[in-house]
């Protein structure tokens, strides 16, 4: 199994709800942040994607909440791409607290949208393999 890419994040107070827990929508934002960080680490900037007329899209996201997160908690958000045949791919992510407890798991079905045609690119793995300076970060 590939070693996932990860970023560190500290939960900020304004991201919490009335009970002092991380607001549920912020988990998805953290997952997005980790994915964009992976793209940058692989040598692909958002402007590079736009210049090539494509953009990543999320078609489905499932969040499984395991342990609470509160302001000041430090977490690691990992990101592992899983490839199959066709136009979509999966990204599995875990948010792990400093004490090693998994706070959440996020699973997404994603694709790469051709911005002119408004259709998914037929082979997104090939696009990332050719475009990335570090395709191994995409589990390719």
Automatic annotation (TrEMBL):
The protein depicted here goes by the name Acyl-CoA thioesterase
Question: What is the top-level taxon of the source organism?
Answer: Bacteria
**Which species is this UniProt entry from?**
Streptomyces olivaceiscleroticus
């Amino acid at each position: 199994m590939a070693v996932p890419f990860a970023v560190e994040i500290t939960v900020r107070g304004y991201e919490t709800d009335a009970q002092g827990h991380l607001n549920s929508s912020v988990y998805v934002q953290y997952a997005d942040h980790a994915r964009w960080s992976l793209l940058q680490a692989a040598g692909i900037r958002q402007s590079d994607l736009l210049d090539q007329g494509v953009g990543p899209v999320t078609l489905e996201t499932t969040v499984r909440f395991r342990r609470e997160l509160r302001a000041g908690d430090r977490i690691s958000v990992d990101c592992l791409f899983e490839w199959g045949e066709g136009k979509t791919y999966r990204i599995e992510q875990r948010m792990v607290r400093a004490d090693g407890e998994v706070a959440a798991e996020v699973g997404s079905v994603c694709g790469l949208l051709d911005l002119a045609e408004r259709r998914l690119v037929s082979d997104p793995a090939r696009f990332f393999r050719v475009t990335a300076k570090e395709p191994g970060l995409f589990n390719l």
